[in-house]
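Hi team,

As requested, here is the filled-out complex form for the protoporphyrin IX containing FE run. I kept the field names the same as last time so the parser does not choke. Let me know if anything looks off before we queue the next batch.

— J.
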Amino acid sequence: LFEAPEKFDIHRKNARRHVSFGHGIHFCLGARLARLEAEIAIETLSSRMPSLRLVADQQLEYSANITFRGPSRLMIDWDR
Ligand code: HEM
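And here is what came back:
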């Protein structure tokens, strides 16, 4: 079980046990590719827009969905 599962916390101690890519014999075959793509996309974006940041103290809203769980939007800001 995850402590305070509703909280967005990238520093969780047991973060490696998440089930975003499923688990067991049906664990996502594309997990390595998806992680690599995400790494490249995030590195490229942050190098091109170094001032990109999350808007502080925003109230997160979650969409009702039994398979996907995540904020319905995440507000960002950057120096123009
Ligand atoms: C962020 C991206 C992705 C997420 C969050 C994701 C998530 C998942 C999840 C949760 C499952 C398990 C479904 C179940 O238990 O029924 C799964 C299975 C699978 N995924 Fe992904 N996936 C992603 C990207 C990809 C990519 C890029 C590929 C292929 C290039 C891929 C191919 C597959 C396949 C073939 C399975 C079925 C594995 C099996 O049933 O043995 N996925 N994925």
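Two things worth flagging: The CA atoms of residues 9 and 22 lie 20 Å apart. The helical segments are 31-48.

Thanks,
J.
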